[in-house]
Catalase (Sinorhizobium medicae), 1638 residues
Amino acid sequence: MFYTDGKLQYPVRVEKANPLFARALQQAIGGIEGEIRVAMQYFFQACGARGDPKFRDLLMNTAAEELGHIEMLATAVALNLEGAPLSLKEQVANDPISGAVLGGMNLKNLLSAGLSAMPVDSDGVPFDMSHIYASGNIAADMVANVAAESTGRALAVRLYEMTDDGMKDMLSYLIARDTMHQNQWLAAIEELGGGQGVFPIPNSFPQDQEQQEFSYAFLGFQQDGSDPVAGRWSQGTSIDGKGSFKAGSIMPMGEKPQLAPAKPRGGAQKEQM
Amino acid sequence: MFYTDGKLQYPVRVEKANPLFARALQQAIGGIEGEIRVAMQYFFQACGARGDPKFRDLLMNTAAEELGHIEMLATAVALNLEGAPLSLKEQVANDPISGAVLGGMNLKNLLSAGLSAMPVDSDGVPFDMSHIYASGNIAADMVANVAAESTGRALAVRLYEMTDDGMKDMLSYLIARDTMHQNQWLAAIEELGGGQGVFPIPNSFPQDQEQQEFSYAFLGFQQDGSDPVAGRWSQGTSIDGKGSFKAGSIMPMGEKPQLAPAKPRGGAQKEQM
Amino acid sequence: MFYTDGKLQYPVRVEKANPLFARALQQAIGGIEGEIRVAMQYFFQACGARGDPKFRDLLMNTAAEELGHIEMLATAVALNLEGAPLSLKEQVANDPISGAVLGGMNLKNLLSAGLSAMPVDSDGVPFDMSHIYASGNIAADMVANVAAESTGRALAVRLYEMTDDGMKDMLSYLIARDTMHQNQWLAAIEELGGGQGVFPIPNSFPQDQEQQEFSYAFLGFQQDGSDPVAGRWSQGTSIDGKGSFKAGSIMPMGEKPQLAPAKPRGGAQKEQM
Amino acid sequence: MFYTDGKLQYPVRVEKANPLFARALQQAIGGIEGEIRVAMQYFFQACGARGDPKFRDLLMNTAAEELGHIEMLATAVALNLEGAPLSLKEQVANDPISGAVLGGMNLKNLLSAGLSAMPVDSDGVPFDMSHIYASGNIAADMVANVAAESTGRALAVRLYEMTDDGMKDMLSYLIARDTMHQNQWLAAIEELGGGQGVFPIPNSFPQDQEQQEFSYAFLGFQQDGSDPVAGRWSQGTSIDGKGSFKAGSIMPMGEKPQLAPAKPRGGAQKEQM
Amino acid sequence: MFYTDGKLQYPVRVEKANPLFARALQQAIGGIEGEIRVAMQYFFQACGARGDPKFRDLLMNTAAEELGHIEMLATAVALNLEGAPLSLKEQVANDPISGAVLGGMNLKNLLSAGLSAMPVDSDGVPFDMSHIYASGNIAADMVANVAAESTGRALAVRLYEMTDDGMKDMLSYLIARDTMHQNQWLAAIEELGGGQGVFPIPNSFPQDQEQQEFSYAFLGFQQDGSDPVAGRWSQGTSIDGKGSFKAGSIMPMGEKPQLAPAKPRGGAQKEQM
Amino acid sequence: MFYTDGKLQYPVRVEKANPLFARALQQAIGGIEGEIRVAMQYFFQACGARGDPKFRDLLMNTAAEELGHIEMLATAVALNLEGAPLSLKEQVANDPISGAVLGGMNLKNLLSAGLSAMPVDSDGVPFDMSHIYASGNIAADMVANVAAESTGRALAVRLYEMTDDGMKDMLSYLIARDTMHQNQWLAAIEELGGGQGVFPIPNSFPQDQEQQEFSYAFLGFQQDGSDPVAGRWSQGTSIDGKGSFKAGSIMPMGEKPQLAPAKPRGGAQKEQM
């Protein structure tokens, strides 16, 4: 269950409203690496967490924090949009600046939301909840969370570099929180056994039932028959500690597939039957 | 550039065509953790890879392999669909089995694809390319790839458990390849410096510009004022080796936000102005 | 800013786990009239609320409550899924029940989420945040909220009728909350001036700038030339109190449109130029 | 069944073609508050209308009118696009205006549609038919229609303010029709019994089966224990006339949820079992 | 502009309501090859038609007819849904039939639409207007229309084979109309010059500006160096009459691409710079 | 199964990096008429091809070629993005050019992909795999392929006209390949019997089971009762050679539909029962 006091987790200050930066900030709200994604991802992972309840608590608490980040960013977007013109002023040709501002901003923020934030990305594409990765496997979830916070911090850094406004202060806070969250989910992986304990995910599948000849083989294609690109992935003990890497050319073990002819009354051409 | 010889990477054998299992297999084609996702994700990461070209080669070769996995699974779906009835035979009530088969399968596989595979998931939802994570940050990409292969292997294991058919053989091969691919991307992370070298991602951002007071602090909420759930994330050196974990209560540092009144001719109610 | 204590707003009891009902409940989570929609809609309306701050408070508090409803429903889904089989057991024909259960449930709940809830509707379609109506016009938002709670309560009633389980208790609570929320947003409309005060929305546009001849005219088409279907909408004072209804035949005031020929090098056929 | 004469309901005049305004107009075609939405919403509500057939007639007639509005707007978009350049002319830096025009317009209108309108919004996002609210409950449908026409009129007003072209004339007509349609659906609610007759929707559910203790209680959270924000929603007779508003603090009646351990062969980590 | 008389173009008779067939029929409404698609495709092509106005008339008239087909199918869906149970009746195990019916139908038709049709496909996926192909090139549009009517007729034939109900009568009418519409758009191509006149589309691009060496060459890959699969496409005059087919092995003319290093403050890893 | 050598099919040269043209090129990658679409469409058609295996070979080989086209275009996008600024430089007003560049480009290419290509269209909308038309009917598939290559070539021509860069060279190659692919699929139709052999699609449905009275009748609406617009479609032998065109007024053969009253406990208003 959730509570709110309507206050911001961290102050949001905009010195010079910039509708184009408002559009950029939308990526941090409704982009696939944005705050709606992590808030809802941790929320659904928490709701489905089976096993030690501490992971549910960890996830749900962080979900609550991320909801507060959406609130901060939505406030920042609304404040930046206060600089937007409402009209085209006759012709773009006579007034290039206002045309460029309207042209460069996300027009839905004005037309559809009346100068407010929306759950869309920087191109106005709505966030789609299929990006909520909650697999029922706690280790896979933790890796997905590290991934989300990695792309999230890359985005926050790019926004930080884009602006010279007071917005830098808010972003330096969000970058710090992303640092923590990357570490937090890595710490959870450590609690679950670390690299050699959790991989390959899921660790509950008996590996003698997989085709082990191919479990640690890097396969690639070279027209001259030489081995594919070498690296840590082609030699040495595997990272999960359960095999040894090797490398080889990829080649077919199967034949060209043969499907049955089309059924007589199934809407195919008669030549296919 | 790509080549094909039309053969299958591994044999695909269906003993008893089962349209419901065809629907389940669709998740491995068009689900968010399926093969289209990894094939296209590695492809786009390769196309945008800046820096050491070996990562481009590694990614593009694995993309090619995953395309072959889609081909295997699409063949498996088509073969399983050959058991589907084409008609409802009067009434469901009189013939519960054919009703259950048609009811349980993805009807589009019949109506729209004529008993073939489609780029959709097990509920018939088309794959959406926003799931292609290619961030321009090679380390973030590698973590995203470990995540993709972790949920992918969990899915393959669930499919393996669901069937008693010859399909188990093909799936045991795909499970092995997922083992390799998890290890392969982890190996790439090792080449990039390992945990303490790559995190926090991006490692190019100077950490003295983030609000470091919050960079390693786990924040949660307890109504009785006690600390939030303890774990590896609340004490000890951080996983990236650059700080020490601490824990505390989450609390607002900002106030309730204040937006300006609505603009006079901006489509708001006059009470908002 | 948000807090959570991890507890449920109302007890969730499942007596007999039913995976098909789990699928039905998914509509109340990720359907367009479900709880993610209202939680996020009130959240974004709050973030963009300009004018009297009490509406921001009202909206944000109710957003927090709705988050708790998602949590309740996600718990209910996970508990109902505990009755799902993991395998097809040879052939559907030999075991119609397990086939029907797997066929009737949302397979992603098993394959992709490991028997947990997902942010999808009852057909497995992910929720799409374009359904968050937050217009920057507080009255339009309130009407959208009444609409959301009306379809939401219709859905809850249908779920209540579908089950005979302890689930009825949880649903009777949610139905009551929907009753309140319908009334609450209607009360907000009353605070904003009631029907004659708020309509036509937006009330800030000077009506002498609209083509008033058509502002209160019901237009329809009858092949015999008679008036279209009569009702309250075709006579009497308009509901907003600012005009009188009349009725008439719809007919074109414009001509067939004439576009310029295609530009010479714009990718059209040469016959279009 | 539908007929067309190819003429426009109201004249469409563009004095100075403006591709950026074409992009803005796209919101009124393919935005969630646009004309495709209302046309198709009334159409599907009509097709599913059970009960008094006059509502089917009312809805289908208005659907036909809204189709004509799409036609008007699509014509307006095509005419405004006739001002678009087809080439970048060397460099944006040397020719800021043509760059700004191409940069500010929806590029798909040129690249994909050859300077014609598309069923997309002002950011080029295609309309998605999940926005067609047709609930099978006639009162819920009418409220949804008032909501659609309220956001629709807010949009039309914003477009009116944005332009100084002859487009203002067409928009003043559409604004008037939105005034009528808001009133028309409110009139339909009056025919269905008015506020006290239709609410809570659905009015067919016996209220003694809902948890009536919570049916008229506004719940919010204040850290200091005081009541949440007061207003018409916290006291007095409820708007539906069937209860009395009260207010209180939101608090959990349930416990932390407990899910069963993960099933042995279900793809979870072994630590979860 | 559009008119309606509320009547059906052709009678719709359901003898035995079948909710599973209702789900199948949904594909003909909201599937990518369904009636919403063709209605809206012809509508938008008409709105953007430049050149001889007879094509606008042809397209808009057929759009109107297709709207009537949606109406017929929506009526058929609603009538078929009248056979759906509203409750699960205790346990699926005790009542396999009602469970199979609810499990096999599109649950949203019941939960979200109250036993009415929706603009979704047979798996409950909403129609997405990006499928409206209207290219600004009249010949490309006509080919797209032939494609739409070809998949549409295949779908109608499959539905015809699936049912034994009076529904066969309605479907035999729709199949006939699809026959006409395929021929109608082929006739339009003939008016535009026929195969040798319209191809390659667009015919307005001067072919001496394309790399003509590759304009009629079929390229494929054989590991043994032999030519790829032979057919009409590898020899003889090309279908557009403007070249001669030849065949050859596909091979790279470019090198491995080289991107610049990542920019210093662009969110990449420092190893990429 | 697929192989890659990491080289480009044709050289990709960018002389003057232009982020706005990068955005335009995205349409050729992730637009509905772009290269992902054709690559995946031919791939899935191949996987489901029943009948003569030469069509599978033809399709799979061309799928491989199209994958190489995505690679070329993704390289071109990345190279063009190298001209993008990373920051807003204080205010748009002071630096209109950098503002216009950032405003005109797809911001996700910078924020989310670090100056790389993405599987999105020119407005940043992700490609959605529902556009993969693979019907199980080989003739319908071939027509869909001609349609795809027709819109694809129109797009390539528009891109060619938009740029003055070395990009013209790459585009002239892609235009030539589109010429070939249009002809190639037309050649496949010829192999399948040509117009009179393949139409109406599917040619396996016995036409005496369709309502033949309407199979070759063009229906339209004229208010004055005259025939609808005349053309090749209203007279002469039909294109499929199996009938004669005629024309007539469209008119209803059915009545207004009558649905049953709403069920008592189905969530409708009581007035509907």
Observations:
- Chain B touches chain A through 109 residues (CB under 8 Å).
